[in-house]
Amino acid sequence: MKKVVYMDAAASWLKPQSVIESEVDFLTNNYANAGRGICERAGKVDDLIAESRVKIANFIGADSTNIVWTYGTTDSMNRIVDIVTKTLPNKHPTIVVSDLDHHSSRLPWEMYAKDNNCKIITMPLDENFNIDTKTIPDGDIYVITAMSNVMGAAQDVSSIIGVIRSKNKQAITIVDAAQYVVHAKIDVKKFDCDFLAFSGHKIGADTGVGVMYIKNPDYWNVDKFGGGMVNKIIDKENIILNKSPEKYEAGTLPLTQIIGLSKAIEYLSNWNGGNDLISFMYDELSKIKNIKLVTSKDSSLITFVVKNMHVLDFGALIGMQNICIRVGNMCATWIHKKLNIDGSIRISVGPWNTMDDAKYVIEKIKKIVE
Ligand SMILES: Cc1ncc(COP(=O)(O)O)c(C=O)c1O
């Protein structure tokens, strides 16, 4: 069998055995819906979902009532726009974004702004492409990408939000932690953010599950209606919703994925982050004449371009070697515009990668580039 090297962890992780086993066990032996039944088996599922929620809450320093299950970061980010704009009296807020943003966290706001005639302002970046805390503009709603999927650097979220709060106590702060969660510790109380989101599949859980943290879940209007979120319907005017977080969870949850996510968190907590591999590969790539590195050595990933070679040509050639790395704009158009390039090549590692993989990939890249 041909050797396959998967170095695209930032797109999606390969799955740890413990995640797979927990999902197979649930599907084989314990499956039932959650929040719907009163038999012992259904009760056990409720317990498993509750346990997973507590585990995620502890992992990010929250209470379990602040943790809402979603289908991923994109789903969370789109929902946050609806939740916030349904509640805030000001329908024309000034929205502040940054060029580090992924399409999923910024586009929903760009679309809202277009339809509702709102101003969008971009936070300046400093010379290292980090959000510059000295020049944060005034605004009502802030989207903060805690770690760009192209630059791989952890932003100083607490300081950024500290500056925002010093300008406007009522500002709404939304943190995209899809990449940050893999490499840095989230502490939502320290961050003091209003919302935070990440996906399960980027930390070893299955696709189809995400987390949306809401600081004040009782304050906001819900964006979705359906089963599982209603306490009582008295009449047309009097519909009583469940308390948080259930009020945000209309419809059947991705149960299997939630159970797997709990195991993924345990697994992630025991991983060293792959810095040794990134550091080795960074040094090797920096010796290759035609390679221009975009990231710095302490980044959690490596992004680069090859002089006089289109990234898609490079992608095709490296792909033929069964090496899985990401090429293109990575759903992060704005940072590429800022860097003045159409696209880039990204290497990101996970716990399954070894130093042998790293040497093998470098050897193949050298062959293509030189
Ligand atoms: C920084 C960032 N935000 C958001 C997303 C979207 O995540 P998902 O596709 O899991 O919804 C990604 C995925 O690449 C990302 O890297």
Describe the structure.
The protein has 370 residues and is of the alpha/beta class. It has two domains: 17-269, Type I PLP-dependent aspartate aminotransferase-like (Major domain) (Aspartate Aminotransferase, domain 2), CATH 3.40.640.10; 273-369, Aspartate Aminotransferase, domain 1. Helices cover 38% and strands 16% of the residues. It is built from twelve helices and 15 strands. The chain has helices at residues 17-30, 40-60, 73-87, 103-116, 157-167, 180-183, 188-191, 255-269, 275-286, 311-319, 333-339, 355-369, and strands at residues 5-6, 67-70, 95-98, 120-123, 141-145, 172-176, 195-199, 210-214, 230-235, 238-241, 291-293, 302-306, 323-324, 326-328, 344-347. The strands form four sheets. The protein has a seven-stranded mixed sheet, with helices on both faces. Helix 1 packs antiparallel against helix 8 (255-269) and helix 2 runs parallel beside helix 8 (255-269). The model has no long low-confidence stretch (mean pLDDT 97). Bound molecules: pyridoxal-5'-phosphate.
